[in-house]
């Protein structure tokens, strides 16, 4: 846009859309007080791709291990998630206390299986999260 005195101003505009067809996902992951939860049917919702997206957003290296930040969930919901990950993907993880909350923790010996499972779905710019060299 060019205004007075031939000054050039740059701007970017974009619009987002909401699709009511996805409301069921919002309803599944938020309770009536709009607090994040792990739904009881997490096993049917969790796919390899969804797990990879979750890892890209909230996961990372912690020493020689991988953690996924899940501090907003209560312990009983974490147990549901842990069980779903094992049943769906045969990945073992533990629930570790981090301050007064909990995170998912994948031990060093489980990283190769974790990487094999998620790597095909990770964006190239996120592969560093699996680099343990």
UniProtKB/TrEMBL annotation:
<dbReference type="InterPro" id="IPR027434">
    <property type="entry name" value="Homing_endonucl"/>
</dbReference>
<keyword id="KW-0255">Endonuclease</keyword>
<dbReference type="InterPro" id="IPR004860">
    <property type="entry name" value="LAGLIDADG_dom"/>
</dbReference>
<dbReference type="Pfam" id="PF03161">
    <property type="entry name" value="LAGLIDADG_2"/>
</dbReference>
<dbReference type="GO" id="GO:0004519">
    <property type="term" value="F:endonuclease activity"/>
</dbReference>
<keyword id="KW-0378">Hydrolase</keyword>
<keyword id="KW-0496">Mitochondrion</keyword>
<protein>
    <submittedName>
        <fullName>Putative site-specific DNA endonuclease</fullName>
    </submittedName>
</protein>
<keyword id="KW-0540">Nuclease</keyword>
<feature type="domain" description="Homing endonuclease LAGLIDADG">
    <location>
        <begin position="7"/>
        <end position="114"/>
    </location>
</feature>
């Amino acid at each position: 846009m060019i205004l007075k005195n031939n000054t050039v101003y740059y701007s970017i505009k974009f619009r987002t859309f909401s699709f009511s067809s996805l409301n069921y996902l919002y309803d599944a992951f938020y309770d009536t007080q709009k607090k994040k939860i792990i739904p009881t049917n997490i096993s049917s919702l969790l796919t390899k791709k969804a797990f990879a997206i979750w890892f890209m957003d909230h996961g990372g290296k912690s020493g020689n291990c991988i953690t996924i930040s899940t501090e907003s969930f209560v312990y009983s919901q974490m147990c549901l998630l842990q069980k779903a990950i094992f049943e769906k993907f045969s990945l073992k993880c533990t629930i570790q206390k981090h301050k007064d909350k909990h995170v998912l923790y994948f031990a060093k010996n489980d990283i190769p299986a974790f990487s094999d499972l998620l790597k095909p779905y990770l964006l190239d710019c996120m592969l560093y999260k699996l680099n343990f060299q």
